[in-house]
Design goal:
Elements (H helix, E strand, L loop, with lengths): L4 H22 L43 E4 L6 H7 L4 H8 L5 H4 L9 E5 L34 E3 L8 E8 L6 H10 L4 E5 L1 H4 L2 H12 L4 E3 L29 H19 L6 E2 L8 H8 L5 E3 L3 E2 L13 H11 L4 E6 L5 H14 L3 E3 L1 H6 L1
Parallel strand pairs: 3-8, 4-5, 4-10, 4-11, 5-6, 7-8, 9-10
Antiparallel strand pairs: 1-2
Helix pairs in contact: 2-10, 8-9, 10-11
């Protein structure tokens, strides 16, 4: 039988369309995160390959391209306090000027990144104050000395040492906790750091206290002592004390009591170190009045040594005390010519802070030395 050509062509076209519809219905629909099966053929289309979004990371803080005022590039060892001092401004003002560029400065002022570009003055062209010039040719050289004590006269109370030059005195009280004391002393010896130590007589009689005093005796070129009384009583109000409060009870201490606190401690310290602590002493808690000064002077203690930088290292971090970085920032950033820094041989973060503080101060050009060296000019 024969078919007309037109009818045959129509039948073939219908058959082809039917087969195409069947193939289309058999192909699954990809929804959501479904991916089609990938063949090993190199000719697979790009649209069939899943797109993987890149990992997102927090972009580093970068300054805006256009900055007004005087600009400063942060270098190693900088702190907000040191930059503020050099440009005669305040930490708060630096935070305000740079808050939009570096938001972390508001919540963590101790965090600076080398290379940050800070606005340090509201007008362009402000020049920084000069930094101290090191007395030694090398910032790590031991250019300090200890033990050349100042004369007993005139009487004076010092918070810093006028005319001390580019020198900072690291001073350590020894009147309570002593756990890291030997490690601190070892660090000072290894790094040739002169220091003035203020032990109490009571702590000098403990096992660790005796070892500390032995280190002082072995290194008179580095360490000198001052008197911190026998029992660390509050000499103005009475009470307190360490390691026992019993000797401190009974109201306002008399002149005789103050003299005995000093002379009893001196006997212990002199026997252990070979040094006579006069005329240097530090009143416990920094409390004194004229009656206290007169009583101390009557037994030879005419140089009352306080401090201008308090590290508060006696307070643990859990109780709101500073971290090692915060201590170092405070000291390195706040030190001036003739500064006296208060620390404790039992300070919780003191040892770690010294690892940052000593190179930081030397990098700024300061000699780390004793009270005697500062007073000697």
């Amino acid at each position: 039988m024969t078919f007309p050509r037109r009818r045959l062509a129509g039948s073939l076209l219908a058959l082809a369309l039917g087969l195409a519809a069947c193939v289309s219905d058999a192909t699954p629909t990809i929804q959501g995160n479904q991916q089609p099966a990938r063949s090993g053929s190199a000719s697979s289309s790009a649209s069939a390959t899943p797109t993987i979004p890149p990992e997102t990371t927090a972009a580093p803080e970068t300054p805006a391209p256009s900055l007004a005022g005087t600009l400063y590039w942060v270098v190693a060892g900088d702190t907000l306090a040191s930059i503020a001092r050099r440009y005669s401004t305040s930490v708060e003002q630096l935070q305000a000027w740079n808050a939009s560029r570096y938001p972390s400065l508001a919540s963590e002022p101790g965090t600076l990144i080398v290379g940050w570009q800070l606005v340090v003055a509201g007008v362009p062209g402000v020049t920084p104050l000069p930094t101290p010039t090191p007395r030694a040719s090398s910032p790590t050289a031991a250019s300090c000395h200890a033990g050349d004590r100042a004369p007993a006269t005139p009487r004076a109370v010092y918070r810093s040492i006028p005319g001390g030059g580019a020198e900072v005195a690291l001073t350590f009280d020894m009147g309570g906790r002593l756990d890291p004391a030997l490690q601190i002393m070892s660090f000072l010896v290894a790094n040739r750091v002169c220091a003035t130590i203020f032990p109490t007589g009571a702590m000098g009689q403990t096992a660790m206290g005796r070892q500390v005093l032995a280190v002082i005796r072995a290194h008179p070129e580095l360490f000198e002592i001052g008197n911190h009384t026998m029992y660390h009583c509050d000499l103005v109000h009475g009470g307190l004390g360490s390691p026992t409060t019993a000797p401190c009870a009974g109201g306002t201490p008399s002149a005789a009591f103050i003299r005995k606190e000093l002379t009893d401690a001196a006997a212990i310290l002199k026997a252990a170190t070979g040094q006579d602590p006069t005329p240097y002493w530090r009143p416990p808690y920094g409390t004194y009045n004229q009656a206290v000064l007169d009583a101390a002077a009557s037994v030879g203690y005419t140089k009352t040594l306080l401090w201008d930088i308090d590290t508060i290292d006696w307070k643990p971090i859990a109780d709101g005390g500073p971290t090692a970085q915060q201590i170092a920032n405070k000291v390195v950033g706040g030190a001036l010519n003739g500064s006296v820094v208060l620390m404790h041989l039992g300070g919780y973060e003191t040892l770690q802070a010294l690892h940052l503080m000593v190179p930081g101060l030397r990098q700024r050009g300061f000699t780390l030395t004793s009270i005697s060296d500062q007073l000697d000019g």
